[in-house]
Amino acid sequence: MKVSIGNLATIPFWDKLRIKRKKLIRLWVAEGFVKERKGNTMEEVAEEHLTELILRSMIQVTETNAAGRVKTCRVHDVMRELAMTISEKENFCTAYDGNESRLEGNFHHLSVHDRGEKIRLGRTMSHHLRSFFVFKTDMCTSFSLDAALSKFKLLRVLNLQGVPVETIPSTLGRLFNLRYLNLRDTKISELPKSIKKLRNLQTLDVWNTNVRRLPSGISKLTRLRHLYMYCNNYQNSETSNIANSMMAPTGIWNIQCLQTLACIDAEEELIQQVGKLTKLRRLDITKLKTVHGPKLCTSIQKMKNLLRLCVTATNEEELQLESLSLPPSYLQKLELIGRLNTLPLWVRSLSNLTHLYLGRSYLQDDMVSSLHGLSALVLLELRKAYNGKILHFKAKWFPKLNKLKIVELAQLDSLVVEEGALPTIQELNLIRCLELKALPQGVEHLINLQKLYLEEMPEEFIQMLRNDKNHDQSKVCHIPTIKIVCLNGQSQVVETLC
């Protein structure tokens, strides 16, 4: 791979902050830094570039996920200064911090940082600018977004994430070359109809905004690869995913390039047609009714490239997903939120599954014995997923599990870990399991456990850890960090035992 200034200069825009791997990859594709290769998506090629830069120590990994994969990264301060210096000399990119009264230059890439001063852009900026990043600047007082968009007609990238803008002007439609539009965490409530003119758009991100319906013209954006809609906070609130839902535009299933569709309401026509999106890598679908389950299974079976699937049921309705006889063989992440009579048999066949989240399942059967064959699993979260009294992890089960999170299992009163079970686990979270009043039996066998996190657990449980004379206390002395979070009235009290 030939390392270009563009590969490195995209990251310095984030200053000392980290940038997510997936976001960086989408930006590289949008900027045109990645060339197509037969047999690979441009995102896969970009990931190879990122790996090589990391191996060369030109990019630093700042966070990895439970599977050890890069989650966020940054550029070392020295490398950042070098990249920015060379970029400015070559008129490639610059950062505006308000120190100059007017920004002049033929730069291709511009970032504006939060300084509060009035931004004045010189005439030459409008003719060459390809990407425009704004970092939480007060847009209402600093400059006119409408005026800026009218000038920057050749923009490929527009990043307004976290900026408190409430409206997007119709002049957006004039940016015929725009490939990346990030409006995440803004205050907008609708998109202009002129967005249908952005025929080159690859990424549209309106996650965690007030937008509840996309213009029908979205279905005409045939080059769209990634579509992020609304904030899916079901893990923190049982009803937020219902309140913040969004209906997909009619015809969205005709965008054959689509790789990411997160998140959409389960409507009758959509469920039947979404199977046409055979290139999908991620699908998040919510408000699923019981009767829709079999039809959704039929569509999912056509998505051979699916890597991540999240299905959420409406309120207390059941998830009927047993008819998925041939699940996507490459599936890595699965989230099922809703009542389950039994765990679907096909889940046990997912040999590549690394992340599994079960929420509001209220299963009666021993789910652990059903899941132990998932040898690639690195993260398992059970939230209101089990109504039984005991979870028993036997020897050699879950050989790669890194993190186990058990939340609000109302009947659970015993957690047993045999010697040889969970050999690689590093983090164990126990949250609001009110009948679990004793330490997990066999916790002393978890020799690689680095963190035990306890939140709103019974007082008897907590006292065992605080009492130095208690025999059980010695069972956790090998754990470097034990964090206890309790409620004291309306406030939280955090206590760390090391």
UniProtKB/TrEMBL annotation:
The keyword Repressor does not apply. The keyword Cell wall biogenesis/degradation does not apply. InterPro entries: Disease_R_plants, LRR_dom_sf, LRR_R13L4/SHOC2-like, WH-like_DNA-bd_sf, WHD_DRP. Keywords: Plant defense, Repeat. Residues 128-453 form the Disease resistance R13L4/SHOC-2-like LRR domain. Residues 16-83 form the Disease resistance protein winged helix domain. One of its GO terms (biological process) is defense response to other organism. Coiled coil: none annotated. This is Disease resistance protein RPM1. It comes from Castanea mollissima (Chinese chestnut).
